[in-house]
Amino acid sequence: MMQLSDGIIYYPSYFQRNEQEKLLEEVRSVVSQAPLYVPAMPKTGKPMSVRMTNCGTLGWVTDRDRGYRYQHEHPVTGRPWPAIPAVLLDLWHSIAGYEKPPEACLINFYADDARMGLHQDKDEQDLDAPVLSVSLGNSCLFRIGGTQRSSPTSSIKLASGDVIVLGGAGRLCFHGVDRIYPATSNLLKNGGRINLTLRRVT
Ligand code: SIN
Ligand code: FE2
User: Fold this and answer.
1) Per-residue pLDDT tens for 131-184?
2) Which residues pair with residue 109 across a beta bridge?
3) Which residues on adjacent β-strands are paired with residue 143?
4) Where are the alpha helices (DSSP H) in the chain?
């Protein structure tokens, strides 16, 4: 465990390979019930390069007309999101330092050419709870800044099984994924990266 800056805690290799495989099975089960879909940016409708789905009582979604929000149903199937797997609830209870359980687990799938621009996670009403992030599959270059878009940033390579906590003074830090490093893990047979983020919303 290592503190990257105030409130930003990095747990390299939190999950061992066999645990990553179990987690991946759980993700596959969620995706079979709540398929990955193409999110779109608010207003412009520009498609994001990541594919998304969620589990939990709430899921984070975005589309052109209604923008960033949490909702109880999958935007394509209209069905409630599947439950958050126990292994992720256990993770939250082990390291979040927050009594109430997470309500949302956003699942981002990055193909090897996908990325995510610098942003803040600020669609949650509860900003006292941390955001927990789990990486699976190929490594990525993760950029972390401060609470202003113009704050200086630093970058860290996140590998399969790594966990990052954005809490406290780091909760509203800008962050993003600049690139995926192809063929850095054999966890996902067809390459790419999966990121799971657990959040308390209400
Ligand atoms: C996110 O900020 O939603 C994703 C971060 C990541 O993929 O590591
Ligand atoms: Fe984020």
Assistant:
1) 999 999 999 999 999 999 999 999 999 999 999 999 999 999 999 999 999 999
2) 51, 194
3) 155, 176
4) 17-33, 86-95
Q: Which residues contact 168 (CB under 8 A, 6 or more apart)?
A: 6, 7, 130
Atom of ligand 1 nearest to the CA of 195: 7
Please check whether residue 180 is in contact with residue 192, taking contact to mean a CB–CB distance below 8 angstroms: yes
Is residue 29 left, alpha or beta, with left meaning phi > 0 and alpha meaning psi from -120 to 50? alpha
Residue 142 bridge partners (DSSP): 156, 177
Give residue 57's identity as a one-letter amino acid code. T
Q: Is the CB of 131 under 6 A from ligand 1?
A: no
Evaluate: CB of 133 within 6 angstroms of ligand 1: yes
Report the separation in Å between the CA atom of 118 and the middle of ligand 1, taken as the mean of its atom positions. 10
Phi, psi of 181 (to 5 degrees): -100, 105
Q: Which two tokens stand for residue 199?
A: 């959040």
Question: 86 CA to middle of ligand 2, Å?
Answer: 22
Q: What is the dihedral of CA 30, 130, 59, 136, to 10 degrees?
A: -30
Q: Which domains does the chain have, with CATH numbers?
A: 2-199 (2.60.120.590)
Task: Say if CB 190 and CB 128 are below 8 A apart.
Answer: no
Atom 3 of ligand 1: nearest residue by CA position: 197
Cβ neighbours, 10 Å, residue 16: 10
DSSP 3-state assignment of 46? coil
Query: Is the pTM for the entire model greater than 0.85?
Result: yes
